[in-house]
Write a structure and sequence with these properties.
about 170 residues; 3 helices; 6 strands
């Protein structure tokens, strides 16, 4: 039975996931549905926890300070709603769970930076890039259609104005 469960979970996993570690500063791009519209929202912060890295339910907890208030979000890395995760900065930490950052602010909340190669670590998801490109093309087409409709409406108004001016000139 466990081989069947493993086969199902492996089918649900994304082909490549970024190697995110505790202490990394990351940007997480997540799809948000509002009514019938979808948009992509970015959340940038420090990873304070990583859970079950090699499983389907691998999770990271990202923390940032917004207007003096700490905000934490947890993301499932293999979720279809998480489009991509970019590692911006890697820090030197000696713990897996950085709970002490919750009580700290300012300089005491800083983590010591560590050099790393961003191009190797950041994985590009071709499927997500294709979807983003299709959305961009659809938005351009909608803008072009809207501009054409506006131009046609302006031409119609100009024709009506010319007709009215001709009537006034004939009556005067």
């Amino acid at each position: 039975m466990s081989s069947l469960i493993k086969a199902v979970t492996d089918a649900q996993k994304k082909p490549e996931v970024v190697d995110v570690r505790t202490g990394d500063t990351v940007r997480v791009y997540q799809q948000i549905k509002e009514g019938n519209k979808t948009r992509v929202q970015m959340f940038e912060g420090v990873v304070i926890r990583t859970d079950r890295k090699n499983s389907l339910d691998s999770r990271i907890t990202v923390r940032k300070i917004t207007s003096g208030v700490g905000v934490e979000k947890s993301y499932l890395l293999h979720s279809p709603l998480v489009e991509k995760v970019e590692v911006i900065k890697r820090s030197k930490v000696r713990r897996k769970y950085l709970t002490f950052l919750r009580e700290r602010s300012g300089k005491s909340a800083r983590l010591t930076g560590k050099d790393f190669d961003k191009s190797i670590n950041n994985v590009r998801d071709p499927e997500a890039e294709r979807i983003a490109e299709e959305a961009r093309i659809a938005a351009e087409q909608a803008a072009a259609e809207k501009a054409a409709a506006k131009a046609a409406e302006e031409a119609e108004l100009a024709a009506k104005q010319a007709e009215v001016e001709a009537n006034h000139a004939a009556n005067a």
